[in-house]
Amino acid sequence: MTVFSGAGISAESGVPTFRDVETGLWAKVDPYEISSADGWRAHPDRVWAWYLWRHHMMSAVGPNNAHRAVAAWEDYADVHVVTQNVDNLHERAGSRRVYHVHGSLFDFHCDTCRSAYRGPVPDMPEPVESVDPPVCEACGGLIRPDVVWFGEALPDDAWERSVEAVAGADLVVVVGTSSVVYPAAGLPEMALANGTPVIEVNPEPTPLSSSATVTLREKASTALPGLLQRLPALLT
Ligand code: APR
């Protein structure tokens, strides 16, 4: 089984999604300014402050029943998790094979020489407008999170493993993603083109809904815990 997850699976842990018009992260800031390579070059202090706050938020919450259900499926199946989320809630729930196609907010590297940064990261319980990023000891470059911004390529290793996981799956479960950001959103399409059933779990319709084999209009924490038992009925 391959699970493809997005911000919706972490919403019930208290991590806001991106595109909800009222509560989403993008309702508060300009996504391009705060999450693009250009935005970083123009205002690294603002971008760093924003990610410190998100880092705090993600550290302060825990996995929910949806993350735990995915981890528990490993008792019954060979499970690979492809996630667009930069939190570590799948790992903290116990999933062993997690591929972060949009990177991780729990690793950092130098923007110039790309060496890993293992120094301290300040706690930022409230959002602030500007914090200067740490400076690389080796080259003086700025330290940035290992997340993929608009305009950047996906990490090769995570992407290759994700494509393999989708190509080798007997079932793909797509949960909590608006299915609009490519190339990641192409993974379920790849599965469907191979004849692999795709189950979508999302309370709202998405561009994938009309082509998915099954769409469950349910929250992740409602649908995932009993999903394996429902499979025979859903897929016949
Ligand atoms: N259970 C399941 N799905 C949910 C839940 C829930 N409890 N709550 C919300 N959702 C759904 C929403 O209906 C929406 O379709 O989760 C989806 C979240 O969509 P986005 O906010 O667009 O998040 P995501 O699809 O992960 O975004 C993809 O875009 O902004 C970039 O790099 C960022 O990885 C992110 C990518």
Automatic annotation (TrEMBL):
Cofactor or coenzyme needed: Zn(2+)
Keywords carried by this UniProt record: Cytoplasm, Metal-binding, NAD, Transferase, Zinc
Record-listed E.C. numbers: 2.3.1.286
Catalytic activity, as annotated: N(6)-succinyl-L-lysyl-[protein] + NAD(+) + H2O = 2''-O-succinyl-ADP-D-ribose + nicotinamide + L-lysyl-[protein]; N(6)-acetyl-L-lysyl-[protein] + NAD(+) + H2O = 2''-O-acetyl-ADP-D-ribose + nicotinamide + L-lysyl-[protein]
Localization, UniProt: Cytoplasm
Active-site feature positions: 102
Any single Gene Ontology cellular-component annotation: cytoplasm
Binding site for substrate: 51, 54
Domain Deacetylase sirtuin-type residue range list: 1-234
UniProt similarity note: Belongs to the sirtuin family. Class III subfamily.
Record text about domains: 2 residues (Tyr-51 and Arg-54) present in a large hydrophobic pocket are probably involved in substrate specificity. They are important for desuccinylation activity, but dispensable for deacetylation activity.
This protein's name: NAD-dependent protein deacylase
Species, as recorded: Mycolicibacterium gilvum (strain DSM 45189 / LMG 24558 / Spyr1) (Mycobacterium gilvum)
Gene expressing this chain: cobB
